[in-house]
């Protein structure tokens, strides 16, 4: 469905999906097939932070497990039972639960949908310049340059 | 219920209410009796933006109708049917609907619960320094100084 121009309010199910599925290079891009992001904050012209409605198909993951240097993140579960992975281990989530990921702690997180049902959640993150993403489980690192993520191997060589 | 220390995740109904009900001076403070905010982002140590679970009792309002100079705001309705008031007029909201309020537009907003049922929503706002609040319907203005709101009459005299 086309999004209205400058809406006053919308039902989140009316928000169109983001056309670019991921910024990850291969082989990582293929690992997040099954994740669909619907930008919500952008529809209202918000720039200081982003809000997405994100769907995880059965067995999809939200992202590579990662930590941000400057960006705080927050999630609120609307539907389904994703598994949150952090440095502390695995935590089962359910609708009405929320979690926050403080920038700069180095504690890496992602969500996995290990169920046969769809997962739906809201995700919020600010857009602090100079943010970096670190990935303890994978040979990739990320730097936010002028609003765009640049990915390299951990030794700095490009993908 | 006491909040856990550094939780990995919580159900939002476990989040304790904010002890200070409002920063407004009288006679405005009394007008938002019936509004209860439960900070969520703070529980996880987030500082770049705030996330609250907010309850509006029947006939309560979310805030004086206001606009921010620097803070973007976003709401997501979890329960109930609040009325959103903006410069464009009144919009009826329902669960699953969201709205965003871009900083610097001057378009002022608030929510009113005109029903006999509780309203529950998530609100997100960033914490950009130097933010100012303007109130088209009331003799009050606000300035964020070192993370605290300072309120004066529109002619600058203090309350």
UniProtKB/TrEMBL annotation, chains A, B:
Residues 53-124 form the Cupin type-2 domain. GO terms for molecular function: metal ion binding. CDD domains: cupin_SPO2919-like. Keywords: Metal-binding. SUPFAM superfamilies: RmlC-like cupins. The keyword Metal-binding applies. This is Cupin 2 conserved barrel domain protein. It comes from Tolypothrix tenuis PCC 7101.
């Amino acid at each position: 469905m086309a999004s209205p121009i400058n809406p006053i309010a919308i039902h989140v199910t009316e928000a169109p999906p983001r056309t670019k599925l991921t910024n990850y290079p291969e082989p990582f891009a293929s690992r997040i097939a099954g994740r669909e992001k619907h930008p919500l904050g952008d529809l209202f012209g918000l720039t200081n932070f982003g809000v997405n409605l994100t769907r995880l198909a059965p067995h999809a993951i939200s992202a590579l497990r990662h930590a941000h240097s400057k960006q705080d993140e927050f999630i609120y579960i609307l539907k389904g039972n994703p598994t949150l992975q952090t440095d502390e281990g695995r935590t089962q989530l359910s609708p009405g639960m929320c979690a926050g990921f403080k920038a700069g702690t180095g504690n890496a997180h992602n969500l996995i949908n290990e169920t046969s049902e769809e997962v739906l959640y809201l995700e919020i993150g600010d857009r602090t310049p100079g943010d970096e993403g670190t990935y303890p489980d994978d040979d990739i690192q990320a730097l936010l340059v002028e609003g765009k993520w640049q990915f390299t191997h951990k030794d700095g060589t490009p993908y």
